[in-house]
Amino acid sequence: MSMGETKGIGVAKGRRSEKVAEAWKALLLVVLLGSATVVGGCTGIVSASKPTDPGTGAIQLNPTTVNFGNISVGKQTSQTVTIANTGTASLNVTQATVSNSLFKVSGMTLPMAMSAGQSSTFTVSVTPAASGAINGTLTIQGDAGTSPAVVNLSANVVASTGNLQSDQSSLAFGSVTNGNNLTKQVVLTNTGTAAVQISAVSVTGTGFTVSGVSTPATVNASATATLSVKFAPTATGAVTGSLTVTSNSQGSPITISLSGTGTATPTGNLQSNQSSLSYGNVNTGTNSAKQVVLTNSGTAAVTISSVAATGAGVSVNGIATPTTLNPSATATLTVTFAPTAAGSVTGSVKVTSDAPGSPLTIPVSGTGVQPAISISPASFNFGNIVAGQNSSKSFTVTNTGSATLTISQLSISATGYSVNGLSAPSNVAPGTSVTFNAVFAPTAAGNLAGTVNIASNAPNSPATVALSGTGVAATRTLSFSASTLAFGNVNIGSTTATLSETITNTGNSSVQISSITVSGTGYSLSGASGVTLNPSQTFTFNAIFDPSTAGAASGSITVTSNASGSPGTITLSGTGVQAVSHTVSLTWSESGSSISGYNVYRSTTSGSGYVKVNGSLWPSMNYTDSAVQNGTTYFYVTTAVDGSGNESAFSNEASAAIPN
To answer: Which of 200, 364, 470, 611 is the least crowded, having the fewest Cβ atoms under 10 Å away?
Structure first.
């Protein structure tokens, strides 16, 4: 670069000005960059691998729409809904809510834990109070982050109606001796869905009377009422009449024709102390017996020719026919109801004789009830379970029958399985449920199968639940994100280098890391401590290199745990280097006269912003700038100053780039 010639530098002395004409030759500025040689190091960054996605649970309901169809007012109707966890992780079902209080949920105890792939059932019922369409929604919610599942509910409620029916359309009493009487029964049954109000019961015809029902009377749906019609003639001859039952039932009134004949000839008159026999609910496989006393209230002997019973499970004994009953004599029948299947049974006991009005018919009714067992799920596969660990599954036992279910024993016959949560004996009312837990706790590797046996009073006892699972050998292994950490060159005393290390549990069992230690001069750890890692869980800590002397340094990290192959070792390497120190050497040349010295200017911007760096006039044509910073580029110019203090223009610009 050149310093341009400067001519006519004016120097003022007193009042007189004097021009000095001087030709200055160019200054040549040369820059030399000096430094102590050093190799700069750089630190590496090890990125921890992203933890394995633990998965999420997902609630699924089936069906998603439940339509109860047409149902009667006041009648409870139920349907079953299946709930399943179709996600990839366990979840907790925390809440079940319905938007319409007419709908109810049963058979599910909350909170309920569900593992991935697990399913269960519960019951949704409705008991409407008035006719019309009703709708609602059932919402099942789980853990935070689990989307709720919804079932749409609907039903069409129709008005209930009563329907009163008679088991007799006519009653023929035959011949009855004047002064005696004969009684026959009429059973009224409400086959409708609403209660029937009987407002009046009346009878016509001489000698006919009726008893058994005081009006007004209510006959509920499926209930019965029994009328006793008596014929007591006082004169000889045929008599006709009718029995009329008036109610709010459809088809009202009911009319039953009556007929009989009064006679003066002595006749037998066979009567029963029971107008009907109702056994109520009787468990299948058991029986209930009732007594019937037959009395000859007539004036002549009665010969009983046969006694027969009709109706499933109904039998009669006590009289060997034929047999004769004298006036005022009695005979006792034993009528037994022994149902073999669930359901209502109607029948009768018929006593055939030579008495008027034969056969004497006694209606019999009863209901066979039996428990029925339903288990959900019917089988379960526990999948792979690590030996020494366990998994529990909840099973629901529901009594879908009509009688109390008695669970007498709950057992399991397989190595590695057990049951708990339900004590025996245990009684389960119809329509209700209980739960028990099956636990799979394998002690060794291999496929294992088991069966839960549930002994009860239900048909086909014992009920069974098939279980399967696989014991998997426990493994405890650790992996390191890097087996070697190389820090490279690190300046002594000015910087530290940090590298991260991630440890992952790659086994199927928890690993206890008892210690993480480091050896080697200049090495230390941050965030390293004892920790327990579950399968797939990670742990990250930092290794630090802070050298105090120059030269290569080696070390190692030792990870002690109960994992196989412990202790694990991570090799450390790095080099301590002296920090860099830089200087800039400037030299220039010139030719001229009367030069007193020089000034050196510096800027970080080319062509402007120069600042003088020498404190006083510099006497020689070389200068060393030691006040420079690494990573900065500097721009230099010089000037010459004569004996009168006149300063020349800037020389050429020279630059120096200071490395890091």
So the answer is: 611
Q: How many CB atoms lie within 10 A of CB 311?
A: 18
- Contacts of residue 558, defined as CB under 8 A and 6 or more positions apart, other chains included, come to 515, 516, 517, 518, 519, 567, 568, 569
Query: Mean of the pLDDT values across residues 502-510?
Result: 93
**Cross-sheet strand order for the sheet of 582-589:** 28-35, 582-589, 622-625
Give the residue among 304, 326, 324, 306 at the shortest CA–CA distance from 316. Answer: 306
CA distance 251 to 153: 36
Does residue 174 register a pLDDT over 60? Answer: yes
The structure tokens listed for 274 are 């029971």
> What is the C-alpha to C-alpha distance for residues 556 and 483, in angstroms, rounded to an integer?
10
Q: Give which of 193, 106, 104, 103 is closest to 155, Cα–Cα.
A: 103
Amino acid in position 606: S
Q: Give the list of residues 6+ apart from residue 378 with CB closer than 8 angstroms, or none.
A: 465, 466
pLDDT for the residue 20: 26
Q: Does the bond joining 371 to the residue before it have cis omega, within 30 degrees of 0?
A: no
**Buried-state track 110-142, b at ≥16 Cβ within 10 A, e below 16:** eebebbbebebbbbbbbebeeeeebebebebbb
Task: Identify the residue whose tokens are 């109904």.
Answer: 314
Residue whose structure tokens are 């006590």: 318
Cα–Cα dist 266/360, whole Å: 19
- The answer to whether the beta carbons of residues 301 and 327 sit under 8 Å apart is yes
Question: Which DSSP string do the residues of 363-417 spell out, in sequence order?
Answer: EEEEEEE---EEEESSEEEEEEEETT--EEEEEEEEE-SSS-EEEEEEEE-STTE
10 Å Cβ neighbour count for 34? Answer: 13
Question: In this structure, what are the phi and psi dihedrals at residue 272, rounded to the nearest 5 degrees?
Answer: -115, 145
Lowest mean per-residue pLDDT among 22-31, 94-103, 323-332, 513-522: 22-31
Phi, psi of 410 (to 5 degrees): -130, 115
What are 564's two structure tokens? 């196989």
243 Cβ neighbours under 8 A, 6+ residues apart: 171, 186, 201, 202, 203, 208, 210, 227, 229, 255, 256, 258
Give the Cα separation of 237 and 230 in Å (integer): 17
Beta bridge partners of 504: 479, 538
- Other C-beta atoms lying within 10 Å of the C-beta of residue 578: 15
Mean pLDDT score, 425-448: 91
Q: Confirm if 127 and 74 have CB atoms less than 8 A apart.
A: yes
Q: What are phi and psi of 143, to 5 degrees?
A: -55, 160
Q: What is the C-alpha to C-alpha distance for residues 653 and 657, in angstroms, rounded to an integer?
A: 13
Residue 5 has pLDDT above 70, yes or no: no
